[in-house]
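Sanity check

After download, print the first record. It should look like this:
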Amino acid sequence: MHDKGTSNTTNQIWCWLSKNYLTIIIIVLLLYLSGAFLAPVFMEIGWDYVAYPIYYFYSHCHQLAFRSWFLFGERAFYPRSLANIQGVINYEEIIRNENLDLEMARKFLGDKTLGFKVALCQRDVAIYSSLLLAAIMFWLSGRRIKPIPWYFWVLIGITPIALDGITQLGGLDIDFLAWLPTRESTPLLRTFTGGLFGSMTGFYLYPLLEESMQISQKHNFKEK
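Expected structure tokens:
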């Protein structure tokens, strides 16, 4: 009796998850993205003691200031001079130092003049935003969108972000990566490749997840 009751409870929980998993994904992604943007909001209003734990929570991201968005300041971004973006203040100018210090770039949060850094880098913002958008579109379609072919995911989703990310590693002044070309990507390119990766991943995985959930529902129904 106990085993049967436990099995029924497990089936009920799984059945609920199979019907509501997409809503859960949308809520989690929305909260996750919102948290990254709340950090600079709290810095702006002077609630540093709330902002610092948020930055720490998102510290799995590199949070390099020259690859991040800024809110409430003169500019939305402060790229390295290596990116060759004309007409903007570069990162070296705002820190008044030409030498690259990655630890300093991670810890640099901004100020009232420059604005405050979003807790996720530009590429991660694009990835999670496009994952969220893909989830919403899949939900609006009634979960009827079919998965894209895996090779589309690799060619359009993974290849551009890999090329853009890897080829700029040579510009970080790391000894064992000195053989790579010296380049720095731009906010637009990071956003574009991150958006491609997030959206292609969403349109590849969400339909597959839906198919798996439907199979699970049919299996549980047959058992009953």
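If your output differs, re-run the checksum step. Summary of this record's structure: The chain has a mean pLDDT of 90.
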